[in-house]
Amino acid sequence: MQAEGLFFDGETALEHPVIVRLADGGLAISGATIAPQDWRFDAIAAIDPPHADRPFRLTHVQRPGMRLVLTNPAFMAALLDKAPQLRGGFNPRRAGKAAMWIIGGLAALALTAYLVLQFAPQKLAFMLPDPWRDKIGAQIEAALTGGAKLCENPGGRGALSAVAARLRDGNPDLPPISINVYAIPIMNAFAMPGGRIVITGELIRKAEASEEVAGVLAHELGHVVHRHSEAQLVRATGLQIFIAIATGGGGDTISSLAGLATILRYTRQAEAEADAFALEALENAAIDPLGLKRFFELVLKEQGKSRTGTFGKIESAFATHPGTEDRIKAIRPLPDGIPARPVLNDAQWQALKRICG
Amino acid sequence: MNEIAAAVPQSAGEAIRIEYVPRRGLLALSLINFLLGLLTLTLYRFWAKTNVRRHIWSCVHINGQPLEYTGRGIELFIGALIVFLVFGLPAVILIVAVSLIFGPEHAAIIGVQGLLFLLVAVLWGAAVYRARRYQLSRTLWRGIRGTLAGSSMVYSLLYFGSLLARAITLGWSTPVMNLNLQERMIGEMRFGDRDFRFKGRAGPLYPAYAVCWILTVVAIIGVILLIAGAAVSTDLAQTLSDIFSEQTEPGVGQVIAILVAVFAVYLVLGAIYPVIWSFYSARELRLFASYTSFDNARFSMDATAGNLIRLVIGNLLIWVFTLSIGAPYVRQRLVRYLCERIKVEGTVDVRHIAQSQAPLDRTGEGLADAFDVGGI
User: Fold this and answer.
1) Interface probe, candidates B92, B110, B115, chain A, greatest A C-beta count within 10 A
2) How many CA atoms lie within 13 A of B301 on its CB side?
3) A300 belongs to a structural domain
4) Is residue A73 one of the residues assigned to a domain?
C-alpha cells in the first residue's frame, strides 16, 4: 500500500513531494528530490493526534527535525494499525509519569507548607534581632491603636508598673516588656513583637480587682516569652513569599499591615501555652489566678455582642476564639500552703482605674 | 547529492499566502486551563500557555502548511523559577528586611522600591526580546525555525532609552522610538538562516500621532470634569467618606452600586484610551508592515482604526465578562487578526532557506513572566 505525501528534511524549507510505502517493518519514503528514507514503525511519532479531516503530521524520534505529512485517510488508517502509538490517547507510561509528578508535587507542597507555616516561624521568631523586633512592634502598635488616645495619667502608669513589678516577684527571668494603655472602647489586651503589650482602657474599666489585670498581663507575658507574635509575623511573611513564588507576582510583603488581624490571631495551641505560662507565673508570684478566671468569664459574657469597625473585628477575632470555656475550666486556685498576696493596695488600684482620666 | 540538487525545480520562488484555519478544541482548552490554574495556584499557567500556543500556531497556515509550536511548559516553568531566584526572591527579601529595619514609612523603602522599579524598567526590553526569541525558536514552518540574532541587553538599553526619551518629550518622540525598536527587532529576526529587513522613516507617523495626543489630553480633562461634576451634584463624596470612615454601615444596594460604578469607570477608561490610540496604532502597523521585507517579498497590512477598535474592545469584553477564562480566545483573535490582515507581495525563494544554526535557549520567558509582559 502506498500514498502521496510531503516531506520536510529539517535542513531546508523546501517541500518535497514523496511516495510513502507501507513496508513490513516501517514506512519507505522516496521521492525525486530526497535520499530514500526508511522509518521503522516504532520510531515514528505523531506531532498531533490523528484527526479525520486534518493532515497527519509525523516525525522520527531520532531525526526530530524531519516532518512527513500524510493526507490519504485509508493509508493513515493502515499506518495506525501498524504503529498504534500514533493514536495518542491513554498511555500507561505517560500516565504513570504524570502520577509521579502529581504525587511529587503534593509532597513538595506539604513539605513547603510545613517549613513555611510551622518550622521556620518557630525557629526564626527567636533569631530576629532585638532592634528589628522593637521596630516591628512599634509599627504594629501604631497600626493597631490607630488614633486612640494613649492613657498617660502618671498615677495610673505607676500602678501599672507596680503590677508588672509584682509579677516579677518569684519570676526573675521575665523578658523586658513595655506596657501601654489606650482609650479603646473594647475589652482586650494584645502582645506584640519586641515585648510590647497593649491593654485597652475598657479592660481596666471593667476589671473589678487588680488580680484580673495581673492575670491578663501574665497571659500576654506568656505570648511574649513564647514569641507568638514574632512567629505569626514570620508565618505571614513566608506565606506571602510563597504566594509570590506561585503567582509570579512581587507581592508587597508586610508593608500593608492589613494582615494585622492574622498576625494577632493566635492558634489554640499558642493560647494554651500562654495560659499555662500565666498560671505558673501567677503561682510563682503568689497572685490569685481566679482573677484571670473572672476576666475570661467577662469575655464569655461579651460574646455574641457583634460590633463593627476595626476594633470590633479584632475583638471578635479574639472573643469567638474557640475553647474559652475550656480555658476557664483549666484555671485552678493557688495550691494549699501558698497564701495569695495582694497585687496593688487600694490607693494604687484606684489610681490604675483612673489611668485614662 | 548532485542528482538531488539538480532535480530541484528551478522556479524563482513562491508567492506567500497566510491563512487562519480554526480548529475545534479551544473551549475545552480554556476550561481545563482555568480549572488546573485554580487547583495549582496559577502554577499551571506555563503549561496552559504552551497548550494554547500549540493550538493557535497549528491554525496558522502559510502556503497550506501549518506553523508548529515546539515549546514545552517545563521550559517556561524553569525560566520563571530561575528569574524568581535571581531577581524576585532577593527583591522580596530586600524589601522585607528594609521595612523591618527602618519601619514602613521610612524613605529607605521608597528608595529601594525606586531602585527595583528602575531595574524593571532597564530589564523590560530584555524581557520582551528574550520572550520573542524563545517563541521564534520554538516556531517551525516546513521544519525550519526562526530566531532573533541580536543581543537582548542592547535591545533592553535601547528600550530603556526610548522610555526616557518619551518621558522627556511628553510622548512626542514615540514614533521615532517605536521605529528604532521595530527596526532593531525586525532587523535581527531570522527565519532559518534568512533575515528580515526593515527600512523606513518615522515622519509619516506624526500627523496621526498629533491628533491622538491632543484627543487624549482633551479626554483626560473631560473625564476629570465629569467626575468632579458628579461628585458635586450628588452626595457621592459624602456617602463614600462616610463609608470609609466607618460612620455608616454600607447597605447591600450601596455596595453593589459602588462596585458597578468602579467596574464602569474601569471599562470606560480601558476603552477610551485604546479607541483614541487605535488611529495611531493602525497607521503605525500599516507603515511598519510596508517597511518590512523578506527575501523578495514585501509586506503590507490592512489595519484600520475601525478593525483595530473592534479587536481591542472585543478582547477587553471577552476578558472581563469571562473572568479571564476566555484568554485563549483573546489570543486567537489577535493572531487571527494578524493572519487575515497581513498580505505578502512578491516571492520567497524557499529552496535557499536553510535551518537556523542559532543555539536554542533551554528555558524561556522567565523575565517576561515576572514582569507580566503582554504577548501571545
Assistant:
1) B92
2) 23
3) yes
4) yes
pLDDT band at A238 (very low <50, low <70, confident <90, very high): confident
Residue A141 lies in a domain: yes
Residues A69 and A5 sit within 8 Å (Cβ to Cβ): yes
Q: Is the CB of B369 less than 8 angstroms away from the CB of A248?
A: yes
The CATH number given to whatever domain includes residue A74 is 2.30.29.30
pLDDT in tens, B108-123: 878 888 888 899 899 9
* Residues of chain B positioned with their CB less than 8 A from the CB of A257: 104
Q: What range does the domain containing A58 cover?
A: 2-87
- Calpha distance A235→A125 (Å, rounded): 10
C-alpha distances in Å from residue B227, one per residue of A127, B219, B231, B232:
52, 12, 6, 9
Residues of chain B by 3-state class (helix, strand, coil), percent to 5: 65, 10, 20
- Which residues are CB-contacts of B6 (< 8 A; sequence separation ≥ 6)? none
3-state class (DSSP) for residue B323: coil
Backbone angles phi, psi at B11, to 5 degrees: -65, 155
Q: What is the arithmetic mean of pLDDT over B152-156? A: 93
Beta carbons of A215 and A166 less than 8 angstroms apart: no
- pLDDT tens digit string along B325-369? 999 999 999 999 999 999 999 999 888 888 888 887 777 777 777
State which of A87, A103, A138 marks the end of a domain.
A87
Short-list B152, B194, B132, B138, CA closest to B360: B138
| Grid cell of B13 as nine digits | 520562488
A243 contacts in chain B (CB < 8 Å): 41
Helices B236-244 and B206-233, axial angle in degrees (round to 10): 80
- Give the pLDDT band of residue B11 (cuts 50, 70, 90): low
